[in-house]
Amino acid sequence: MEARLNVNGKAVKVEFAPEELLLDTLRNHGFTEVKSGCKEGECGACIVLLNGKPINSCLTFTAAVLEEDKLLTVKGIGNLHEPHVIQQAFVDIGAVQCGFCTPGIVLASYALLKNNPRPSDEEVKKAMDGNLCRCTGYVKIVEAVKLAAERLQKK
Amino acid sequence: MKKYTTVGKPEKKVDSLSLATGSSKFVDDFELIDALHCKLVYSPYAYAEIIDIDDSKVRALDGVVDVLHYKNVKQILHTSAGQGFPEPSPYDCLIFDSIMRFVGDRVAMVIADSEKIAEQAAKLLNVKYKIMEPLFDPEKAMDPESPKLHDASHAYPIGAKYDADRNLAAEVEISFGDMKKGEEAADFIIDETYHAHYGQHCAIEPHSVKTMFDEMGRLVIISSTQVPFHVRRIVAQACDYPLKKIRVIKPRIGGGFGSKQEVFLEPLAALASIRHKRPARLIISRAEVFQCSRTRHPIRVRLRTGVKNDGEITSLEMDSLLNSGAYGSHALTVLSNCGSKVLPLFNKIENMRFLGRSVYTNLPVGGAYRGYGATQGYMALNQHFDIITRRLDLDLPEYIKKWHIQEGETSGVFEALGEGKDGVPQIVNSCKLDECIDICIKEIDWYNKRDKKIKNGDKVRGVGLAVSMQGSAIPLVDMAAAYMKMNEDGSFNMNIGATDIGTGSDTILAQIAAEVLGIPLDKIIVYSSDTDRTPFDVGAYASSTTYLSGRAVQKCANKIKKQILGVAAEMMNAELDDLYVEESEVFDKKQKTSKTYSEICCYSLYDKNQFQIQAEASEVVEQSPPPFMCQTAEVEVDTKTGDVKLLEFVSAVDCGQAINPQLAEGQVEGATVNGIAYAMTEEYIFSDKGNLLNKGFKSYKIPTAADIPPMKSYVVESHEESGPFGAKSVSEIGINGPMPAIANAIYDAIGVRMYAAPFTPEKVYRAMQKQLKT
User: Is B251 on the interface with A (CB under 8 A)?
Assistant: First the structure.
């Protein structure tokens, strides 16, 4: 099958099998920043934003994504040269260890802060409920999201 | 304390921005063209012999390239344990065997043009099994009537004790003093048995490997490994392929915790490429990681102590039975560490015996896991000391302070118990355990809560404490090397074998080099873990990198500095003794002149007496200075349901000088949460046929952010003279304390001793009911 997806603000022509998962389609087309940790919808490493909402791309059929849907990966919010405030906060606080879960967690944080610019610790933790991290114990991740919220307020 | 410019500072992890923006490459992010896809077929039986394999239906499927199994793959005994050579693990596995020793043992591998075809084809393999009676109970493994899971030919390359007739994968025994006299001198004996259970590492990136031939026809293996150099050696051995034709690259790694110290997938992907001259991809599913990769070895620990009424321990016997599962990977060394990393902490005990046995069963395979035997040993020891002090009405923290090893002291265990051989005698140079204990009891408000049984309806609160130590590298065994060269702008390439698996070692090793050279961290360009392009390093295990690889880097940077000073002296016509280095510049204090690093490098490359300023250094350490830690927990137990709520958890560590305090804290926090989860929820649940029933993150119950209790982590000030800028290790130790600290807190609340974890409501409730009946 063929379709046009809108990824990070650009139209991307993709080829995929009928039952293909969005995770595989994105990775097959170079969006390897979308990570595959379990393919069971449990770890959140494959999270992308679909019209601003975090979804597990391993639980989403590519065929179900419409041309007008806006997909956002972690590279769509910032890059090495111009990182997003959230990405920089993760770096500054030391919230990145192995970094495999980080793209998904950064996107979950991005979605949270769009809707709730001043979340409490509990709200941050709740927003991360679909993301697993085995390295950090989550302590610095929560701190990083709070720091990002603070910096975004000042902007 | 010495003043440092970059050491001791929370420098940003050098790869973190790349990771946070999704730019970094993990194994599966490398593109392969025309790749083969590999899918494993596993045994559904715990113990069976393959009578025949018929792969004709598989081969007939369009897109299938090959099927590998015992009939067509050379049978070379080896171990998958990624350890130094010769490995202290038995050579007891083949790439493909005809004997299946656990549910999940590998039968065959289908190689196809696509992942989907490989998956479909794997279902078509026709295998005839002769099912045999399995052995699940480690306590029965040594019985004469139990099945013998391995052949006598499966012995150790190092000649350690191994007895196939008793399913004995390893046996270690040490003793000193006189146990009989010790027990006779005691006023009473406490004899208790504790059980540490199976655990899964749960690195979020599953085990992954990609193989390909480069433009010169050499085999390149990109692997999610903690041990790239051991991978090269073991692939060469198991695939009977020349080592010189193999290059192993470790890219970014999505967590390891010991799971990726195991070389069990690389030979398979390598074989696919070698046979078909095409790139190959082998990435296992989450369910396969749970069932078929490696686990924490369950250990049953029996502790028997003779105790005087004043609290003196006159004898201690530790009898550890390790369930190695189907293969003996790390069976000897995890077992040894259950004693060697635990018993020296209480070095005043004059009569001591450690008897350890590792046995085969038809269950998943054990391996390296953060804590490496010490976690299991401390689960027992910390509860045992709680029992002793309660019996004598002594204060546990004060008791530990009185009896634990101190600076300037040693323990006979260090010398007696090593890694598959004798250990190395050592004196503890740095021990700030008392400070750690003080912080933890203050933060948990110990004296206002201990024995107070504070009630809230049906809920009761309690506090518990645990202490532990670990090591820093394996002395006189592990080797690490570093190479550096200087560039025209005063920057340096640093190529190191050390293996950053998310721990931050690329960063802290660069900090060590930068500190020696008096330069900012960003002047060091780190490249690590590539068997072609970096010097050797044993890899990321045994809490070795900061201490061992750090010393290699420090040594290397000092050599570079010497050369820089030599060139500067020549340029300024100065005496070496008058020179000093500061902020990327060499100063002559006599003539008041200076040369920048950039000028020095340009002179050496282009001007006179030209040469490349470069150096290498190798390091082997003669001791393994232990980090020390105290951890305290406060719990609230619901006496109606057995539900345990962790209210607070405090950790304080003496890791020597923290090279990067932010990363050190991260290690403590991560290890602690891993330990809390192992104590509270995580466990392997098997069917009566030995099939693992909970092969996923959710059913295994790993924690999310919402599950984490309020936590405090402290890194105390300490300096280890033998370490690079005073550093010891920090990566493993934090996982040792949570289980016993929480168990002790549960006892404090409800007076029920939890001899086995996880402390689920069901287990706690049952333990409460059992106690009521007795």
Answer: no
